[in-house]
Design a protein that fits this description.
two-stranded antiparallel ribbon; mainly alpha; binds zinc ion; protein-cysteine S-palmitoyltransferase activity; 9% strand; 311 residues; transmembrane helix; Palmitoyltrfase_DHHC; S-acyltransferase
């Protein structure tokens, strides 16, 4: 019997402050690099500007990876998300606010405040850590763990998986989310979905607001006159919000599909590690073939019910 405790140690305070500083500097660098797109391509169609923004995003991400590998400088991903949110809020308050009605203003400010609260709560939430004494089959193999003494509760509660980022076991483990700085498991999966929906709603509203601003100040039609820095930032943050929205809609759709099938991201990607997802069938040539099967799928209604723990 091995006593399993949370193996991830919190970072020392000075390291945490250092990483947050790196994150805030990289957000400023990133957002001002993005503002170069409308600065030099204001006459180009939106789709071209969007593609260029995506290229800038990839280049900056690559640069961040390079800094980490060569210089050993690390940023904190949740701090990066947080400072991007603050930056967009600042652009809204300083530039875009004047172009939108007070009612939309209240809604947008409220959404941002809720997102900040949500980010803090998911960062400190317990995803469903398994800390009771139990014997675990090979750690890196990530085999499913069924502790005989803890069989009560939902099916999902018994599906304990190993998070390689945090080196710990989590009930109903879905995936490790670097952006939210935590594992997503049975206990915070619903919060994760709500937060994702919150980001989608806020981004959508921001796109509407910044578009209103652009239309009012006629940046889009006024191709000959050079836009000011604040106008560039209004457009570049709008492009950023569109990119975010697109990939989050794709991610959310896929995630909801997984919930309807009662399968978690980790299980979906690494199903060959978990025996219960494997079915050995004989192919026509007489050889054994391993096929995917999902023993947890009880139909959409039951699966969603189990996810929401209504049973
Ligand atoms: Zn984790």
């Amino acid at each position: 019997m091995v006593q399993f405790q949370d193996q991830s140690k919190p970072l020392p305070r000075w390291k945490l402050i250092g990483r947050c500083t790196v994150s805030s500097i990289s957000v400023l660098f990133f957002q001002f690099s993005l503002s170069l797109v409308p600065r030099f391509f204001s006459a180009s169609p939106l789709l071209i500007q969007l593609s260029l923004s995506a290229v800038v995003l990839l280049v900056i991400l690559g640069l961040g990876r390079w800094c980490r590998r060569i210089l050993g400088v690390r940023a904190s991903a949740p701090a990066f998300v947080f400072f991007n949110l603050l930056f967009i809020w600042a652009v809204y308050l300083a530039v875009i606010r004047e172009a939108v009605s007070w009612l939309i203003g209240i809604v947008f400010n409220g959404e941002v405040i809720l997102l900040i609260i949500g980010l803090c709560s998911i960062l400190s939430s317990n995803p469903g850590l398994v800390t009771y004494g139990s014997s675990f089959p090979n750690e890196l193999g990530g085999s499913s763990v069924a502790d005989e003494g803890h069989n009560e509760g939902s099916d999902l509660g018994r599906r304990v998986r190993y998070c390689r980022s945090c080196k710990r076991y989590v009930k109903g483990f879905d995936h490790h989310c670097p952006a939210f700085g935590n594992c997503i498991g049975q206990n915070n999966h619903a919060l994760f979905m709500v937060l994702l929906a919150g980001f989608l709603a806020t981004e959508a509203l921001y796109i509407v607001c910044s578009y209103q601003f652009a239309a009012k100040s006629q940046i889009i039609d006024r191709a000959t006159l050079e836009p000011s820095l604040s106008e560039n930032l209004a457009i570049s943050t709008m492009l950023f919000a569109i990119l975010q929205l697109v990939w989050q809609v794709v991610f959310m759709t896929w995630h909801m599909h997984c919930i309807c099938l009662n399968i978690r991201t980790e299980e979906w990607i690494n199903w060959k590690k978990y025996p219960e997802f494997q079915q050995v069938v004989q192919s026509q040539s007489g050889e054994n073939e391993v096929r995917f099967q999902n023993p947890y799928d009880k139909g959409i209604a039951e699966n969603v019910k189990e996810f929401l723990a209504l049973e």
